[in-house]
Amino acid sequence: MAHSSRLVDMVHERIEDFLAERTSILRSISADLEPLDGFSRRFLSGGKRFRALFCYWGWEAVRTRGFDPFEAAEGPDRFPVVSAAAALELFHAAALVHDDLIDRSDTRRGLPSAHRLFEGLHAESGWAGDAADFGVDAAILLGDLLLGWSDEILDEGLDALADRAAARASRREFMRMRTEVTAGQYLDILEERAWVVQPDDEQRLRAERVIVYKSAKYSIEAPLVIGASLAGATESQIRTLRDFGLPLGIAYQLRDDLLGVFGDPEVTGKPSGDDLREGKRTVLVAIARERLAAGQRRLLDELLGDASLSAEQVRMLQRTISECGAVDEIEQIIARNAARAVAALDDAPLGHEARNELAAMAKTVTRRTS
């Protein structure tokens, strides 16, 4: 874990250096652009850096040859993978800014979301027009800026890579990831509205599809493959990392779905039952609907997505979902997918230390509380 901690520090430094260069451009244009600088730094300063870590250990899994992996990759040799890891963090920050807009979320990690920060800036400054509208407009632009910057920092790393085939493979996976995340996000907002005309027996399958493309691939599988591709991975190594990454990504998102309904707001930084108010049609909800009697199912459908749900209504829905056995089933699915992921590492054509680290991370991401 010491290696992972050092990697997180390096990614943070890489992001800080990159932002210093890019925000100097903003300052040269106008002092009025300072909020784009300040808010971008705010959204890139925290988080668990899971995507960066999976990217690094995907790279390490391929290039390790039995020596101390971290010490053997000093200086410029590590620049491409640190840059790719940083690019994933910038992409993630952009996705969160846009996701909070789509979900109309007021908070992120216990602090105001980007559109609320810009809304507050408008209100404090006494500007003309509607503060909420300004917040939405400015947050869209901040997300777009971060998205563009993620491409720039990735390309800086790829330009330093001598193996051009490896650089192209990494870039292809990054572009595929962006397409899949956008598709998954669309399917997510579609399910919140289209579920009413979909057959009941298809809703779990549709929710599982959202998990795969909105989160599972982008959170774990793609970062692993991007990192491995940088190291010149073989098809067999890529296949193994996908076999590990996809089920673990599914387990990761299922844990997130549980936290979205039952998580402690003091730990998650989000209000309790936030996903219930947002009307998320998750696998958890699909399983609950399969298990509930007709009357309870109608009540769940009626209340889910009501932004004005009271604390008592949230607690009632939490009890309903839990008591029907949906939570227990989700826990079983998480455990099966985590076990499937770890089993994929057995005798895999990957570095020994990296395999151990990936197995440890599998526990971390599936047992987390935030």
From TrEMBL:
It is an enzyme of class 2 (transferase). Its cofactor is Mg(2+). Coiled coil: none annotated. Its EC number is 2.5.1.-. InterPro entries: Isoprenoid_synthase_dom_sf, Polyprenyl_synt, Polyprenyl_synt_CS. It comes from the Bacteria. Belongs to the FPP/GGPP synthase family. This is Polyprenyl synthetase family protein. It comes from Agromyces lapidis.
